[in-house]
Design a protein that fits this description.
The protein has 186 residues and is of the alpha+beta class. It is 24% helix and 31% strand. The chain contains five helices and eight strands; from the N terminus they run E-H-E-E-E-E-H-E-E-H-H-E-H. Strands 1, 2, 3, 4, 5, 6, 7 and 8 form an eight-stranded antiparallel β-sheet that branches. The two termini are 34 Å apart. The relative contact order is 0.23.
Length: 186
């Protein structure tokens, strides 16, 4: 297992985040009541943006995620990758502070990023006064991959790799060299 808690986004974390189509946002009220929602997002450097779009909702500005962020700006943002081959499981967990974007210029840049990623947003009328954009400032990053160290791997693993040494794992954790592949149904 590769674990790498960091304060910056490694190349591997950036690629995994940018390659994901949906993420999960976890917020918490002032009293610590958790709330998790899936969302579309765009990343720019160490900032992650999402918009309260026009998909059906009871309210735009009274959403629980927005109320929670107003009460407690600390959030968790997760992209995960599931595969039936559990050697390919991975996730990136970002912890940061969220805040509504108040400046129209930054709002337009964030919406442009979102529209580049999601064609649905190109057809959706989004307005500064009606559709809040939220910015998450990345503070901590934790990556995990079942397949072993990747970019951002632990220093000892990098040193072993430079020396050409194999990782010493218990037999139960070693990667299989042969797989049985079942044909997919037509």
């Amino acid at each position: 297992m590769a674990r790498s808690p960091k304060t910056s986004l490694s190349e591997d974390a950036r690629k995994r985040i940018d390659g994901a189509r949906v993420a999960r946002l976890a917020t918490s009220s002032r009293r610590g009541e958790p709330h998790v929602v899936p969302l579309c997002f765009a990343r720019s450097g160490r900032r992650i943006y999402f918009v309260v779009d026009e998909k059906p909702k009871r309210t735009r500005t009274g959403l629980r995620r927005l109320r929670n962020i107003a009460e407690n700006p600390r959030v968790a943002f997760l992209v995960d990758f599931y595969d039936e081959d559990w050697d390919r499981l991975a996730y990136v967990l970002v912890r940061g502070r969220a805040a509504p974007v108040r400046e129209a210029r930054e709002w337009r840049r964030a919406v442009a990023l979102l529209r580049r990623r999601y064609p649905q947003y190109r057809r959706m009328p989004l307005e500064f006064s009606r559709n809040p954009v939220v910015r998450i400032e990345v503070e901590k990053v934790h990556t995990w991959s079942a397949g072993g160290p990747k970019t951002g791997e632990a220093p000892r693993a990098r040193a072993r790799a430079r020396r050409g040494e194999k990782e010493s794992l218990p037999r139960s954790r070693r990667r299989r060299t042969a797989k049985t592949v079942e044909p997919k149904p037509p």
